[in-house]
Every structure is written in C-alpha cells, then in structure tokens.
Write a structure and sequence with these properties.
Blueprint (H helix, E strand, L loop, with lengths): L9 E4 L3 H13 L5 E4 L21 E5 H9 L3 H4 L3 E4 L1 E6 L5 E5 L9 E5 H14 L2 E4 L2 E8 L4 E7 L2 E7 L1 E4 L6 H5 L4 E17 L6 E7 L2 E7 L9 E8 L1 H8 L3 H12 L6 E4 L3 E10 L3 E2 L2 E3 L5 E2 L7 H21 L7 H29 L4 H16 L1 H12 L23
Helix pairs in contact: 1-4, 1-8, 8-9, 10-11
Length: 428
C-alpha cells in the first residue's frame, strides 16, 4: 500500500444494501483497511429493534442461492435467514399460450433456488453487524465531490450544514441508480427506456404459495409473484412485480383495492386462487442503465450506480452482490501485494473480472423482456416452443437454473472470515 497517510483507506458513498454489504465484506475479509461510510440517512440505535415484526407493505428483494452463499461467507446468513422466505420452485409461463417451464430446488440438490427477504430486515442485519465491526459510519452526511491526490482521493463531505475534506485511497460510489455523485464525477451512462413501469406491492391470495415463484409473461408485459412471509410455513402472501405501460399504470392506480385485485386476477390467472388483498403500491419507470467504464484511478461504481436492470428476472441485487465480492477480492490482493486499493491496476482488474458477469446478466434479463414482449404469432410460437424445450432438455434446464440461482458465473477467490471474527453458527 501507499506510504502516504490518509484519513481513512476506503470511503463508501452510500450506506444502502450495496454500500453496507461492501463495508461489512471489507471489515470481515480485509480487516487491515479502515472503512468510512458516508450515508445521507441518519442512523440511531432506535432503528435496530431486537424484535423485528415485518410489515404487510414491506418492500423486498429476491436473493439467489449464490447470494446466500456470499452472506454465509460474511457470517450473516444465520440471522438474515430468520425472515427470508425460500423459493423452492419457479414456474415460468406465457399467458394464454402453451409454453411453460418449471424449476425445482430438489432437482439441483439445494434447499432452495433463492429467497425473498424484506429490505428493511436486510438493512437491520447489516447495521447490527457493522455496529460491531470497526467501520466509521458518518450519517446523515453526503459526499459532494472528489478530486484525485497523490495518496488517492480527497472527497468533500457535507454534514450538519458544514463541509470538510476526507482523504482516502479509494472512493466507492454506492448511492443507487439515481446517483447524483456519479454524474458529478463525469461517468457516462447509457440508458434505454423500456417504456414501461414496475408496480411493486404485496398481495394475498386464497391459496398458499407453496414456496413457488411465478414468472408470468403477458401481452401487456411480464409480471412476477414471489413467495413471501414465514420461512417455515407456506402462507397466502406474495410479493408482486407488475410491468405496466404509462396509461395502464395510471388507470390501475385510480382503481379501488378490490378493482386492482380484479385486474390482477385477469392478468395472472387462478394458479394461486383468488386475489383477496393488495397492499400499498409503489412504482417507478423501467430503464436499462449501464456504465461502460465503471472505474477510474481512485474511484469505482458498484450496485445500481453501475448498472440497473429490469426487475422481473430478479437479477439486479444479486449481480451487484457478486460485483462487490469481486471488488473485495481485488482489495485483498492489493493489500497482500502492498499496493494502494485505489490504483487503476487494482480497480481495472475488478472491472475486467466483473464485466463478463454483468454483460451476460444484462443480456439474459434484457432478452427475456424483448422476446416475451413480442405478440407476433411466429415469435410467440417460437418462445413457447423454447419454454417447452427448457422443460424437456436437461442441459438447457440446468443452464436456466444456474442463471436463476446466480451460480453460473465466476466465483471470487478470497479467504473466508478472518480468525478472531465471530462466525454465524451455520458457518462454523
């Protein structure tokens, strides 16, 4: 590492799921590095209740099996899994047509293909772990700008109405898909508007989900229903991701809850019985956003600041998590070799190793939307034949399952949690 002294080693702009996970991974796997997280939302002990009670309207994230493996490596899974609903089966179908395919965890020797976890619960688990780690958390505060220095970077931080400088070897931008800092630093993004919106809500059905996730492609856009609720017993609660064009979204939002359920029933069908309740609806426009060059000397983009995908395939956070571990892998190597973690050779290797994964994942997610968004009869017949083929051909089905489980790509080579760090029971 560089001999020049800095205030800290790694500065993380953004303490959401991506930023907090990166901070914990560095604290556990590269403990030699001093980590400072700059987060715009305040953090107080009152935000960490001992008895967590999920809200009906809690937002959630789909975690692939590969993400579980990462959280196990970080010693977090035994706690996080307390409120993580397993996905044991995935049913993919084309509404009104014959095409369908089914994936089952037991066919791949796993307990689950993935999980659904409340975002707030994941955040609480991460905060608890970080409060016990040697991570400097500055909140509420915001990184305003950055300039390179001989030692790495100097960032301008605004906190309590005052601005000051903070020096480090490397700045990681993890402040989300609407990253203002990314634009301030001059990173060039490529954005393609799908012309659709994602409506997110939790729904209740007359039949229990049996830990099955449904991917349903319709003539007006794809929708997904993910099992939610108790990890131990199948319930009537599912997390909905519904793709709608602007006019359809406006019309739906104007309806009563009962009318929304009727509309959903018409689009999804009766595989889970009758829709009996829909919770608070959130929505946002769907865009494919990528950054060709996500690193420069002293700076790296991660998570949604580096790539934002269509949510229906559930790949976004899982791709981000794999990228975080690849970055930590390069930090570990840099420390072992006596390099600064902000050197372009270090960050460039992270980008090179992660690029193939994000390219393949972007292509996989994007192609699903484009192929299943076509209503022309020859294309519809071809995709239905493809779905049936997935169900009949073991090799093709294994490939599809690896994509869904997040296990098909490169795995970072990095030591496990350092001696002296407390491990979760299932990691011992």
């Amino acid at each position: 590492m560089t001999k020049a002294r800095t205030d800290t080693d790694l500065i993380i702009a953004g303490g959401g799921l991506a930023g907090a996970t990166l901070a914990l991974a560095v604290a556990r796997l590269v403990p030699e590095l001093r980590v400072t997280v700059v987060e715009s939302f305040p953090l107080s002990p009152d935000a960490l209740p001992e008895d967590y009670q999920p809200s009906y309207d809690a937002r959630s994230t789909a975690l692939a099996w590969g993400s579980r493996v990462i959280f196990e490596q970080l010693g977090l899974w035994s706690v996080l899994s307390e409120h993580a609903t397993p996905i044991r089966r995935i049913h993919v179908s084309d509404r009104g047509r014959f095409g369908a395919t089914r994936l089952q965890a037991q066919d791949h020797g796993q307990d689950a293909l993935g999980y659904v976890a409340d975002n707030r619960w994941m955040g609480l688990c991460l905060m608890r772990a970080l409060m016990a780690a040697e991570v400097n958390w500055q909140a509420p505060a915001e990184v305003m700008d950055m300039v390179p220095t001989t030692a790495g970077v100097s960032v301008r931080v605004r906190q309590n109405g005052e601005e000051r400088s903070l020096t480090g070897q490397c700045l990681v931008v993890a402040d989300g898909g609407r990253s203002g800092l990314r634009e301030k630093l001059g990173f060039v993004t490529r954005t393609e508007d799908y012309g659709q919106n994602a409506l997110i809500a939790n729904v209740s059905t007359s039949e229990v989900h049996q830990f099955t996730a449904f991917e349903r492609f319709t003539d007006s856009g794809p929708m997904a229903l993910l099992p939610h609720g108790s990890p131990a017993q199948a319930e009537n609660l599912s997390a909905l991701v519904w793709t709608l064009e602007d006019d359809a979204l406006a019309n739906l939002l104007a309806l009563s809850d009962d009318e929304k359920c009727q509309q959903l029933q018409e689009r999804f069908g009766w595989r889970l019985g009758r829709f009996t309740r829909i919770g608070e609806c959130h929505h946002y426009p769907l865009k494919l956003t990528t950054v060709d060059e996500a690193v420069r000397p002293g700076v790296a983009l991660v998570g949604n600041a580096a790539h934002a995908l269509h949510p229906v395939a559930g790949q976004g956070f899982n791709l981000a998590l794999r990228g975080l571990m690849t970055l930590v892998e390069q930090f570990r190597r840099a420390v072992d070799e006596g390099k600064s973690i902000g050197e372009l050779s270090v960050l460039g290797e992270y980008q090179r190793l992660h690029r193939q994964d994000w390219q393949h994942t972007v292509q996989f997610s994007d192609s699903l939307i484009r192929v299943f968004g076509q209503s022309l009869a020859p294309i519809a017949f071809a995709r239905d034949t493809g779905l049936v083929g997935l169900d009949l051909l073991p090799g093709a089905k294994r490939w599809f399952a690896r994509k869904a489980m997040g296990t098909g790509g490169r795995k970072p080579v990095i030591a496990s949690v350092k001696p002296g760090k407390e491990l979760a029971p299932d990691d011992q």
